[in-house]
Amino acid sequence: MSFWKKFGLKKSPWVFHVNTGACNNCDIEIVDCLTPRFDVERFGVKLVGSPRHADALLVTGGVTAQALPRLQEVYRQAAKPCVVFAIGACACDSGIFMPGYHMAGPVDKVIKEIDPNAIIAYVPGCPPKPEAMISGIVTALKAL
Amino acid sequence: MKISLKKPVLAIGPLHPLQEEMEFFQLTVDGEIVTDIDVRIGYNHRGIEKISETLQFDQVPYLISRICGICSASHPLAFVQAVEELAGITPPDRARYVRTIINELERIHSHVLWVGLAGHFIGYDTVFMWAWKYREPILDILEKITGNRNNYGNVKVGGCREDIDDSIIGEMLKELDKIEKKMNMLTKAVLDDPILQARLKGVGILTKQDAIRYAVTGPTARGSGVDIDVRRDDPYAAYGELDWKVITQPEGDVFAKAVVRLLELFESIKIVRQALKKLPGGPIAVEVKQIPAGEATGHTEAPRGETFHYVRSDGGNRPVRHKVRAPSYVNVPSFKASCIGTNISDVTITLAAVDPCYSCTERLAVIGGSKVTYDGKELLRLSRGKTEQLKKQLGFKEGFKFE
Ligand code: SF4
After folding, report:
1. Are the beta carbons of B28 and B2 closer than 8 angstroms?
2. pTM value > 0.80
3. Fold held by B48-328
4. Is the pLDDT assigned to residue B362 strictly greater than 80?
């Protein structure tokens, strides 16, 4: 990745939130990061309304069969380079819903189907605490 | 649904930027007026009932607390009550009180969350930020008791997993006082605000007949004047032994639902306080040997309404059938009654979902040269003045009454 691309990705990352069949808990914890106690907006992390504006996708949930084509479409639309964060045990490995008949596999499998070189970072926990999410995002961006 | 050019269809979803979950609303519109609404669900189907049949009775509560992260105390409690009824187990007194406390704390955090999101949907982000700020201490208490901010996993068949340590009760009571003060302020700020009244009153009305016809539950029903509440009608846990009342509002509009939720906060705080003071001693769980064959049901009042669980056992260590009916499942179809005939912009709040046309409240800082003309205090004064002016213009009477 060129220096400028990396620079653009790492500074003030804008994120888009995709729920692919989560229990809502990871999602409210993501929103929690934006509210006064954690307030990540002061570091330039902003929740945006379109994947085309996003530097990172925050994916929660274990990807149900219905969500699979939609997640892939969102990933296709996201501006590259883009980091995919699998937030929560569900997104990392389908978690407790792994045996479900309607689960189409964890996030990394689904994304790698269309882009084998995708950058995927994992934040485990059920749900991960907001601190864990923030630390996960910072660690991943540092490692780029 | 037929789609033609004469009847344009407006789609909200499945992945809409402001929606947390995947849902799909199709609005058929005539100009600005909604003539039909179609809701499609199933994007979030994970096959929980089937997975539940592969787990042991002790493991199922962990699974079903993940049905919905926000109702993660009510669902397991309904399931556990069903199994306890099946096996003829009475949980110890202390367990009943601990369950009550956790369920009510959950209701408080859920209602506050809703108030914040509702504010966000109509573009009033101040309410959103406030509400979510005041929600944090509640999550801290829950974390202290159960070890997790959400997904408590605290109930099990026969009692509770974690006890409330007697040493933290005083601290919790103090924290509750603080929370009550903040809630009081938030409630007054929301219900007295002339802008919110003008925006929410008379919007998305669900009449009492419709509420009964669609069999809605929870605050949605109580906001339409239907006086139902499982906690009072079929007391479980310790609700029967505590003093509290059911809040209803007759109007049925969005504002009434907000009033119901906000006033319920105070009832919940009252319940938690009483339960903490009365907390009996003794064990928090009884030993469970075997679940006999048979079937049973359990229901609890989740923050959004009645949740209902049916369990059948064949005498083994797993349920052979587990059926869940969550409150939103009956509340969602009522959109047909409340949305049709209203304006598009009103539909979005009525769905308490999104309002993509409203940007967040604007901020203003006029800077002349290097001198700041308006600072924080000045802006506050201007904003209060404007509110007063609006109050006068719209002819609002002074103050909304609380007890
Ligand atoms: S990881 Fe846990 S909290 Fe997050 S969506 Fe999955 S079940 Fe819910």
Report:
1. no
2. yes
3. Cytochrome-c3 Hydrogenase; chain B (1.10.645)
4. no
d(C-alpha B158, C-alpha B151), whole Å = 19
Query: Which residue reads 């959103």 in tokens?
Result: B128
Find which of A14, A16, A20, A24 to mutate to test the B interface (most B CBs within 10 Å of its CB): A24
State the span(s) of chain B assigned CATH 1.10.645.10.
48-328
Q: pLDDT at position B399, please?
A: 55
B117-128 pLDDT per residue, tens: 888 888 888 889
Q: Whose CA is nearest to atom 2 of ligand 1?
A: A126
Helix H or strand E segment including B159: strand B159-160
A3-31 residue pLDDT tens? 888 888 888 889 999 988 888 888 889 98
A18–B15 CB contact, under 8 Å: yes
For ligand 1, say whether the CB of A136 is within 6 Å of any of its atoms: no
For B119, the token pair is 């504010």
Question: What mean pLDDT comes out for the span B259-263?
Answer: 90
What gap in Å lies between CA A11 and CA A8, rounded to an integer?
Answer: 6
- Cβ of A97 within 8 Å of Cβ of B46? The answer is yes
Where along chain A do its domains lie?
12-143
Q: Is A26 in the pocket of ligand 1 (CB under 6 A)?
A: yes
Q: Which pLDDT band holds residue B389 (cuts at 50, 70, 90)?
A: confident
A:B CB pairs within 8 Å? 112
pLDDT classification of B398: cutoffs 50, 70, 90: low
Residue B402, pLDDT above cutoff 50: no
Decide which of 3.40.30.10, 3.40.50.12280, 3.40.50.620, 3.30.1240.10 is the CATH code for A12-143: 3.40.50.12280
ipTM > 0.85 for the complex: yes
**Separation CA B199–CA B193 (nearest Å):** 10
Q: How far is CA B62 from the centre of its chain?
A: 20
What is the rounded distance in angstroms from the CA atom of residue B115 to the CA atom of residue B136?
A: 14
Q: Which residues pair with B302 in a beta bridge?
A: B305
Nearest atom, ligand 1, residue A61 CA:
5
Q: Record the tokens describing residue B44, joined without a space.
A: 């979030």
What are the backbone dihedrals phi and psi of residue B43, each rounded to the nearest 5 degrees, phi first? -70, -25
Whether the ω angle into residue A81 lies within 30 degrees of 0, i.e. cis, is yes
